[in-house]
Amino acid sequence: MAMSLYVKNASVSKTMTLKSFKAISDPNAARKKIYRIGLENLQNTKRILYHAIGSGIQFYRFSSRLVPLAGHDVVKGINYIKMLQKEFAEIGEVVRQNEMRVGFHPDHFTVLSSPKPEVIRYSAGDLARHVRMLQYMGLDSSYKCNIHVGGTYGDKEKAGARFIENFRRLDPKIQAHICLENDDKTFTAKETLAIAKEVGVPMVLDLHHHRCNNEGESLVEIFQEAVSTWKKEKFPPKIHLSSPKGETNIRSHADFVNPDDIVPFLQIAKQQIDRLDVMIEAKKKDEALFQLMLELEKLPGIERVSESSLKLV
Known about the structure:
- With about 325 residues, the protein is of the alpha/beta class.
- Helix content is about 45%, strand content about 15%.
- Strand 4, helix 8 and strand 5 form a beta-alpha-beta unit.
């Protein structure tokens, strides 16, 4: 989860548009407002982390909008991440003390398969900013930035090759923080897995995306290979879980998660690994997680371990 429906007035993605920035006549006052918003986002992040800890949630996705207008030319040369280093460090301490797994999922503008040099420059800069935030938290490369391969731009093979080429141009310290996720429209789980292995990063299997975009590959084999990409990592393999909003809108996430969308897969996972981390992507955020746990614990062969975790018996 990134946000909570239980912690009130705790937006971690409060932003400031370029238009509102330029509407402030005093540039210095506008830049100070960005700092204040970033400070509020980080303070609310810490509040949600404490809520997660109290609810037994050990897996948290940071918002990529912690600092408004990050990377934009209007704030070029201003290191807001460094200005907020105390707050970032405090968040990192909470994460480490409570043995949490955290990371980022940069937005869809961050793609390394684009044929446009300006998009690649922005994407490389955005990944560098995300990694700097993790570094200011004192978190090593075990903590990931999860991205998609990106668009195909009319030629999937060339787009995949561009991704590999542009990935290899990144600073190795940035490369070490990246993991790849299959897409619901472009790169399938099998294709994403091949690229992840080529560049040497772990792969996150998104079950919903695999349902929307596959070529009939065996989920058992795909998962087995995805698991192998996590062997050298501190944390166990992770997957993304969601349910489709409806039959006519299968790609959008539903409010809650249907147990039928995870139980058959759990039987597959049980045969291959002892532990699996699951990121739920649902409109109802943590409410969807708690509801799913209540439904799953009623099923045979499933034992509730905590408010937010279970095991198969």
